Amino acid sequence: MMRAAAVFVRATRRRTYLTAESVDRAMRRRPWAGRPPARLRARHQVSMRTIDGFDCWTVAPRAEKATTAVVYLHGGGYFQQIVSQHWRLIGQLADAGVHVEVPLYGLAPHHHWHQAYDLVTTVYRQLLDRFDAITVAGDSAGGGLALGFAQSLLGSPLPQPRRIVLIAPWLDLGLTDPGAAAVQRRDPWLVGAGVRRAGLVWAAGSDLTDPRLSPINGELRDLAPISLWFGTRDILYPDAVRLRRRADAEGADLTMTVCQDAIHVYPLVPAPEGRAAARAIVREIVGGR
């Protein structure tokens, strides 16, 4: 099934990242609204509020009062809006009794990383007034933002989350690891030229090595426990290997789950491997409640 998923994304998604020009064209398109699907709204308490001009959705269980919360940051190269696969995982979390906050940060090229950090900080601070157990989670670009945000809390008055859950996070905005070129030949989705272009636009002139943009360069030792989920057919995978080595060397609490031959953000893919990983992620988040 993962092989079929690879064929599908190669046919439908890869062209967006083929070149810097293809990413620029995609950025010029008007983004879709990103509203949660009707079936999710029918199952759970779903509401939306505006924070500094950005939408933030709340998805909460109807049947019980949640005692744990998640801030979920969606992927999409920092220029594509949240999609149904993200909402599916968010719905699974709410099914398990988790309160989920989904801030829709502004997208490149009209918005940049400074605004995203401000938005996530506001949402996180609001949750601290209501919940003791908060997980920060995200996939791909959103995973990079999630880790960078947790690092930004070090030395601040705000506490670390209970845990950090990252699905194929974008850890190095410049994609500088030499191993990425070898993996690209097997990755059916992401292409280095397009990924690097998206990173440059999101950085808006800032240094790409800044940990808030490339959290592989940030502090790890005093962070909350990190769990990392990756497939090996992912151009971002070599950076995950680097991150794990750094965590081991620095004594950070990081666990990494690797699925051989799985594609980018495989826990969001409706294949047996993806469904099993999504269930494990939900169990992990709920388990510390």
CATH architecture: 3-Layer(aba) Sandwich
- Tell me the strand percentage band: 15-25%
Query: How many β-strand stretches?
Result: 8
The strand line-up of the biggest sheet is: 1-2-4-3-5-6-7-8
Task: Please give the CATH class.
Answer: Alpha Beta
- What gross morphology would you assign? globular
**Individual helix count:** 10
Order of helices and strands: HHHEEEHEHEHEHHEHEH
Total domain modules: 1
Q: Nearest-angstrom radius of gyration?
A: 17 Å
Task: Fill in the CATH topology.
Answer: Rossmann fold
Cα separation of the termini:
33 Å
Helix content: 25-40%
Question: What does the average pLDDT come to?
Answer: 95
Query: What oligomeric assembly is this protein in?
Result: single chain
Supply the CATH superfamily name: Alpha/Beta hydrolase fold, catalytic domain
Classify the secondary structure makeup into a structural class: alpha/beta
